[in-house]
Amino acid sequence: MMQMNIERMINATGSLLIWLVMILAAVILAGLIIIAAKAISQGIKDMDRKGERKDADNNTSER
Question: Transmembrane stretches, by residue range (predicted)?
Fold first, then answer.
């Protein structure tokens, strides 16, 4: 009887750890998506209305 309780506890702990890892992975993935979206929107904002893009030296170059 004691053996079955220990096995159940081990299974429950493993199951909980799997859920925690999946939640952590989802949070990290959401963070990466948000960072990428912000970088893309910042790149779009950096382009001015004429379609010119600023390079690293703040010079404009035609697209």
Answer: 16-40
